[in-house]
Amino acid sequence: EVVLDVRHVGKRYRSARGEVVALSDVSFRTHRREFVCVIGPSGCGKSTLIRILAGLESHTSGEVLLDGKPVRGPGADRGMVFQGYTLFPWLTVKKNVMFGLKMNGSSAGEAEREALQWLDLVGLTPFADVYPHQLSGGMKQRVAIARSLANRPRILLMDEPFGALDAQTRAKMQAHLIDIWRNIDVTILFITHDLDEAIMLADRILVLKANPGEVQELIEVPVPRP
Ligand code: ADP
Ligand code: ADP
What whole-number distance in Å separates Cα of residue 111 and Cα of residue 109? Predict the structure, then answer.
């Protein structure tokens, strides 16, 4: 079952110095419950790609389909976790997770019940009523994951989510993310510049190869899971 279908997507930025081609003709698909990593050198367009998929930016050619329907703007069908913690500092951990649920029409009671279930899944039940600044970096990203999964997105888009963490925390978070992913029905698209991280996490690695001035190559590498 195809979840995301990226067809010949291209992106050009216009700047004072002329045009920048950030993506040229990128195509791939992801399937239900698949964990896909995208790697590639700095500047090859990884962040541009994920911002387009998130609906935060428009593409200038090609099309992006989610469950067969064109993606336009952000939506609850796509969860996002980026490197910088995007938690609301003035809300408790629980209220951070409840925020999106209430936006999507849950009552306060429903949102609270669901938020507590998601916090349990990421192992943060004892921290439901504290504020983000009281948490370690890894714990903040666990809240961000709980919050983005709470709306039951079809796909979770992650842009170097563990890039700011120390090596030990990062390894713990990788194992933790795999545990979460195994327990729920979600496809993950995960961007990293760390090949070890991609091999640890992915079912399939997409290598985005920049060929300046030429069409970009996308090389697919399957990674058998033990
Ligand atoms: P990566 O995430 O792989 O490092 P990016 O998607 O950030 O790559 O960038 C791809 C290319 O697009 C780079 O050449 C970058 O300089 C350019 N770029 C990214 N964002 C903008 C922007 N807002 N305006 C102009 N050029 C941009
Ligand atoms: P990080 O995710 O940044 O590695 P840790 O998970 O190591 O952070 O947690 C930082 C601190 O919080 C540690 O002292 C740890 O024992 C404590 N801690 C983390 N999760 C829980 C939890 N679910 N219950 C109680 N204490 C926890």
Answer: 5
